[in-house]
Structure formats: C-alpha cells, structure tokens
Amino acid sequence: MTATITTYQWLLAFHIVAAVVWVGGGIMLTLLAGFAVRSKLPGRKAEFAREAAWVGERIFVPTSFILLLLGAWIMHHVGYEWSKLWVTLGLVGWFASFAIGIGFLNPTSKKIARAIEAEGPDSPAASALIDRILLVARVDQVILLLVVFDMVLKPGS
C-alpha cells in the first residue's frame, strides 16, 4: 500500500510549521523575557532585548510572510471563500501583529539600542523602553494565540 501526500497536505504542513515557529517562538521569547527582567546580571535585560530584536527581524518577519503566502495558496488550492469570518479574523490578526511589529516593536528596539549606546545597558531610559516593548510584545502574543484558535475553530464556517 502506497501513501500519497497531496499538495494540500504539504501546504498545510508547512503552514502549520510556520505558525509553530512564529507563535511558539514568540511564546518562548516571552518566557525568556521574564527571566531576563528578573536577572541580577548587569546588562542582561539589554542583551535579551538585542537578541529578541535579532530574532524578530530575521526569523519572525520572514516566517510570518511565509505563513501568509502559504495560507493564501491553501485558500486558492482548496477553494475556501475569502469572505468567511474565520478568514477575516485570521487576516485581521496577522495584519494587527504586522502593524505592531513594524509600527512599534522594530522602531522601539532601535531606540533601545540607541539608549544603550548612549547611556549604558542598565540605564533608566533603556530599562523603561525594554519594559514597554515587552508589554506590547505580550499583547502581540495574545493576538497571535487568538489567531491560532480562530484557525483551528473556524468560526462562521
């Protein structure tokens, strides 16, 4: 007996892997942020902020676009209707996360780098910016988790 893997199964598998990398990675960064914030090591919070910014730009941004493109390909391949509520909610969540990333997380990470360079890694200015970015990143994670539930439960389908 030969198992045949369909195009849909391949698309869905890679779509899910991209979601795992993006959402799961974000959850892991959120947990690690808690350790960095509580660390007694000098500069640890700033070091974590630099690492998270690197991951955001080089891993999460491309993965989020791969996820979106694979989702669109699946929609076309299967013939799902773009007007379905679950599709709209998923796209709204994706765009909200993208806007948060481009509009707040990326520029704030650059401000953090400048504050660290000017005043040092444990400066009050850098620390305040890091606390703010971590709060917004947690909100972003909630949005992404809601999108995951939306994709699984497919309300309005």
Question: What does this 3D model show about the protein?
Answer:
The chain is mainly alpha-helical and 157 residues long. The chain has one domain (7-153). It contains four helices and no strands. Helix 1 packs antiparallel against helix 2, helix 1 (7-38) packs antiparallel against helix 4 (124-153) and helix 2 runs antiparallel to helix 3.
What is the general shape? elongated
Helix proportion range = over 70%
Number of individual domains:
1
Distance between the termini: 34 Å
Biggest sheet architecture:
none
Structural class: mainly alpha
What number is the mean pLDDT?
Answer: 94
Radius of gyration: 18 Å
Strand residue content: under 5%
Contiguous runs where pLDDT drops below 50 for at least 5 residues: none
Q: What is the overall number of helices?
A: 4
Q: Which series of helices and strands comes N to C?
A: HHHH
Counting DSSP E segments of at least 2 residues, the number of strands comes to 0
Structural descriptors:
single chain; 157 residues; mainly alpha; elongated
What is this entry, summarized?
This protein has helices at residues 7-38, 44-78, 85-119, 124-153. With 157 residues, it is mainly alpha-helical.
Layout of strands and helices, then pairs:
Blueprint lengths: L6 H32 L5 H35 L6 H35 L4 H30 L4
